[in-house]
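Project standup — Tuesday

K.O.: blocked on the structure for the chain from last sprint. Re-posting the sequence here as requested.
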Amino acid sequence: SKYALPEGISNIYEEIFRLCKEKNIRLALAESCTGGMIAESITNYPGVSEFFEGSIVSYSNKWKKQFLNVSEDTLKKFGAVSQECALEMVKYLAESTGADACVSVTGIAGPGGETPDKPIGLVYIGICYRGKTSVHSFNFSGGRENIRKRTSATALTLLRHAIIFNK
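H.V.: unblocked you, prediction finished:
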């Protein structure tokens, strides 16, 4: 299947490493609920500095505004865990870094922090690949660590699809 990882590739982090190197893709991340986990997983591979720009780990609303240009209006109206916030994060990251591939994640990893309309495990992932932007929402189950791991792997799986199916 075209969705399956290529033979000899053991995980999504290794696959993103391979794709970025092969296609000369510069990568930038904006991580909230994953707290740098995506960057940490990618930087396990030697030679990653050839394409990886870095990650802005912005937990607070203050940092989302200051470093990712998320508007006060968005945060007040929709909150930090929203499609709108993930979109503003990834769009600004793409504009400000000039990276070919950008990923943003924001969500509620728990325990605590949920509201009636925003349960633990609610995550928004923004993808911007060569000017095409999308935001995806998920409701992951399990504990904090599981939610963070699933968010990290899913974000890069979405990025992989954007790279592979980019027309």
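K.O.: great, moving the ticket to review. The helical segments are 12-23, 37-42, 61-68, 72-77, 83-97, 144-164. The chain has a mean pLDDT of 95.
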